[in-house]
């Protein structure tokens, strides 16, 4: 799933290639992905892309005041195409293609653009055409952006104080902090040397400061690694930069312990026992059920 660093990089990537260009057409292939009807998607045709922004994990193309907003969800991705003039129409349900955005041709006749694709059977990619990004429910309810100047240790303390939620779940809650998902929450907690099961409201001021530093540095480092890369290379960059997430059974590069996993119904988390839980493995509830 693309998280804050990847969406930030995609916004910069599109900003360099799409801003100033006219949209020729937007073709919706996966009709379930389009979540709005007014303005109609056809209203984008003929408008100029004037800006590209990120809101949490949402990607926002400003087209003369009409916004094409995308949430890539778990299996979605953006694929840039240097020339879509020869692209054949795609029948719904016959490919991972969900939306195709065609830009007006260059002087050499090529018509660049991008495609939104979604892998897997759970179709959660969402596209909105709105006059104001705040009309998108997921954007309207976003918590503070962790890379914003006003996301300070005191701001984080205000979020955590009195919280009874495990810190792993809190970091993933977009209504609490925007942009962090399953992968980077694992990375943040590893850097902070903190158990994913620790209760948010029990953190000391020193631990809150350490967690804040871990959030900001982890995300900024990831954004720095992704910046300037082509859209097609961002997935590989994300995977190569992760130290614990997705690395069950591998060696922790900090302490040498074996990275462990806790599995849930539709996801899992990874952590290092030595770095994060005092050397004690966390109970894997799914595995425990299998052993009974």
Kindly name the structural category.
Answer: alpha+beta
CATH topology of the largest domain: Helicase, Ruva Protein, domain 3
Please summarize the sheet with the most strands.
4 strands, antiparallel
What would the average pLDDT be, to the nearest integer? 93
- Amount of helix: 25-40%
- The proportion of residues in beta strands is 15-25%
Gap between N and C termini: 33 Å
Q: What is the domain total for the residues? A: 2
Just give the CATH class of the largest domain. Answer: Mainly Alpha
- Spans with pLDDT under 50 lasting ≥5 residues? 287-292
Order of helices and strands: HEEEEEEEEHHHHHHEEHH
Q: So how many helices?
A: 9
Q: Describe the strand arrangement of the main beta sheet, using strand numbers.
A: 1-6-7-5
The strand count comes to: 10
The best one-word shape is elongated
Radius of gyration: 21 Å
Give the name of the CATH architecture of the largest domain. Answer: Orthogonal Bundle
Give a summary of the structure in a few sentences.
The chain has 292 residues and is of the alpha+beta class.
